[in-house]
Amino acid sequence: MFAVKPVVWIGSSRGDLRGMPRQVRRDFGQALYTARFDDAVYVLHVFQKKSKTGIATPKHEIELIRKRFAEAERHYRERQN
Q1: Which residue has the higher pLDDT, 72 or 23?
Q2: d(CA 42, CA 33)
Q3: Were 46 and a residue from 3, 17, 18, 40 both cysteine, which residue would form a disulfide, CB within 3.0 to 4.6 Å?
């Protein structure tokens, strides 16, 4: 059985998810996981890939994720103190 962890929304991720179709929101909620933070799930970014060709995530999306990950790390460290 999995322990329930709080969800910490970074930046506009919560509002971005609310703008997605219902099925996307449902699937998203079932797919959340954490790899780096033991006591919480940090949602860094929500976006819909629109490209029908290619699989690369746009660079500006990756940069935003990196920025928000750094913010999540700061938040996590503050919670540990």
Answers
A1: 72
A2: 9
A3: 17
Contact, 10 vs 68, CB < 8 A?
yes
Point out which residues pair with 7 in neighbouring strands.
Answer: 41
Signed CA dihedral, 59, 62, 46, 16: sign only: negative
pTM of the model: 0.64
Instruction: Give the model's pLDDT for residue 67.
Output: 92
3-class DSSP assignment, residue 9: strand
Residue 6: enclosing H or E segment and its boundaries?
none
According to the model, what pLDDT value does residue 2 have? Answer: 63
pLDDT at 72 over 80: yes
